[in-house]
Amino acid sequence: ENSVGLIILGDYLQINEGDEVRATGQLLSVPVGEAVVGRVLDPLGNPLDGKGPVNATERRPVEVIAPGVAERHPVNEPMQTGIKAVDAMTPIGRGQRELI
């Protein structure tokens, strides 16, 4: 009743039991667009690749309702992850949502 569960996506070493936390009122979102293509980002969209800040002009919420099957584009092209065990056991199509 007086507790809450959470997922820490940032520096957990600065958080201690009993610390006060506040809700931001915002949903988790990440940068999207050409500025993130080829970049390595953490779960919050911060760069990890040493190439400087991500200059994306648009952000999208992480949790969205997926479009229905009839609304999706057909998946015709296979995608290789480069991990043989994954590619052999779970074939993935380019553009397909798949939890690995």
What's this entry about, in short?
Helix content is 6%, strand content 12%.
Mind explaining what this structure looks like?
With 100 residues, the protein is mostly beta strands. The chain is 6% helix and 12% strand. It contains one helix and four strands. A two-stranded antiparallel ribbon has the order 1-2. Strands 3-4 form a two-stranded antiparallel sheet. It is extended and about 50 Å long. The model has no long low-confidence stretch (mean pLDDT 87).
The percent of residues in helical segments reads: under 10%
Q: Quaternary state, please? A: single chain
- Straight-line N-to-C gap: 34 Å
Number of strands: 4
Rg value: 18 Å
User: How are strands sequenced across the largest beta sheet?
Assistant: 1-2
* SSE string: EEEHE
Global outline: extended
Number of helices: 1
Largest sheet: 2 strands, antiparallel
Structural class, judged by helices and strands? mainly beta
Mean pLDDT: 87
Estimate what percentage of residues fall within beta strands. 5-15%
User: Which residues sit in consecutive blocks of at least 5 with pLDDT less than 50?
Assistant: none
What is the element layout, followed by pairings?
Blueprint: E1 29-32, E2 58-61, E3 78-79, H1 84-89, E4 92-93
Antiparallel strand pairs: 1-2, 3-4
What labels describe this entry?
100 residues, two-stranded antiparallel sheet, mainly beta, single chain
